[in-house]
Automatic annotation (TrEMBL):
Keywords: GTP-binding, Hydrolase, Metal-binding, Nucleotide-binding, Riboflavin biosynthesis, Zinc
Function: Catalyzes the conversion of GTP to 2,5-diamino-6-ribosylamino-4(3H)-pyrimidinone 5'-phosphate (DARP), formate and pyrophosphate.
Gene: ribA
Name of the protein: GTP cyclohydrolase-2
Organism field: Altererythrobacter arenosus
Names of required cofactors: Zn(2+)
Length: 338
């Protein structure tokens, strides 16, 4: 997907990703986009779609090339390209392939939009919908290596790196203090946020939450306990850095953090917490005390077999740039924030 290769789904047509396509001369009258995008484009006969990220097949009056397809794919370009269409929605009789293609776009971090059976697409890569499921199977994850890693918060930390076949993302765990089978660790499940963790972004609470979690685990180790930070490479709640930044552009137009993801045709929450459970399992951790304000994380970990004996609140002070983001988490995502 990231290479821009056309893909040939078993039982479906050839699909060429609009954002990254290497076949610059490709054209097609048909495009696969999200229902959210279809709604914004005011499709003539669009049926009600349950999910904003559900796939919709559209036909334009004239064949689309990549130049005309990109503004159809990218809502962040709407202000600059107001006039598009008209389009008609068509029935999809290769639903599994269409759903898998949308999921692949999310995993690849690109816009969920494809030219369908295009001319001049070049040779397509064969793939089946089952390949996408197999790729995200947590059991494929293994410990790759571990090393002592003194950090500013604690000199007694150890880093453990995890890898899975075909997935280039490497998750890590930081174990702080001495691991003891009979003592439940304090655990923080942190999802990657390059802007917050590294650059000090004020738009979210990730950076302060990460720092405070490490400090709390170090204090726990001082008291004879221990902690585990799981650092999961699922940036932007699973939509990737570039799509998160597109969502930020939409947030600057007035959409909240959930609406912005949906308007991009992506799930508002696409994180995979069963991989975190697999990491704990590989570390030999069965029961935890979880630092979070998000009850859905607790439920997701428990459903994946981790016993969460306590939810430890993890609220940090807000600022003028993240106050709306935190309010949306509280009001729409069920976060327990005071
Ligand atoms: N798509 C998107 N992702 C965001 C946005 N702001 C932060 N994120 C991502 O959200 C994730 C951080 O969420 P967390 O703090 O781990 O989890 P949480 O569900 O908020 O719950 P807590 O455990 O209470 O913090 C990271 O992957 C961030 O990149 C945003 O506006 N849009
Ligand atoms: Zn963040």
């Amino acid at each position: 997907m990231r290479h821009g290769w056309p893909i040939a789904f078993e039982g479906g047509p050839i699909l060429l990703p609009v954002e990254t396509s290497i076949a610059r001369e490709a054209t097609s009258p048909l495009m696969l986009i999200s229902a959210a995008r279809g709604a914004t484009l005011k499709l003539a006969n669009q049926r009600e779609a349950a999910e904003p990220h559900a796939p919709v097949l559209i036909r334009g009056g004239e064949p689309l090339d990549l130049r005309t397809a990109l503004p159809i794919a990218d809502p962040a370009l709407d202000l600059a390209n107001p006039l598009k269409g008209p389009f008609k929605a068509e029935h999809i009789d290769w639903c599994d392939a269409a759903l898998a293609a949308m999921e692949l776009a999310r995993i690849a971090g690109i816009l969920p939009a494809f030219l369908v059976d295009p001319d001049n697409a070049g040779e397509a890569q064969p793939i089946s919908a089952g390949d996408v499921d197999a790729w995200s199977e947590p059991d494929r994850l293994q410990i790759a290596t571990r090393a002592r890693l003194p950090i500013a918060a604690s000199e007694t930390a150890e880093i453990v790196a995890f890898r899975s076949a075909d997935d280039t993302r490497e998750h890590v765990a930081l174990v702080i203090g001495r691991q003891q089978g009979d003592v439940e660790p304090l655990v923080r499940l942190h999802s990657e946020c390059l802007t917050g963790d590294i650059l000090g972004s004020l738009k979210c609470d990730c950076g302060p939450q990460l720092d405070a979690a490490l400090a709390a685990m170090a204090a726990e180790a001082e008291r004879g306990g221990w902690g585990v930070l799981l650092y999961m490479r699922q940036e932007g709640r699973g939509i990737g850095l570039v799509n998160k930044l597109r969502a930020y552009r939409l947030q600057d137009q007035g959409f909240d953090t959930i609406e912005a993801n949906q308007r991009l045709g992506l799930p508002d929450e696409a994180r995979d917490f069963s991989t975190a459970a697999r990491m704990l399992d590989l570390l030999g951790v069965r029961g935890i005390r979880l630092m979070t304000n998000n009850p859905r994380k607790v439920v997701a970990l428990e459903n994946a077999g981790v016993a969460v004996s306590e939810r430890v609140p993890h609220q940090l002070p807000d600022n003028p740039h993240n106050a709306r983001y935190l309010a949306t988490k509280r009001d729409k995502s069920g976060h327990l924030l005071g």
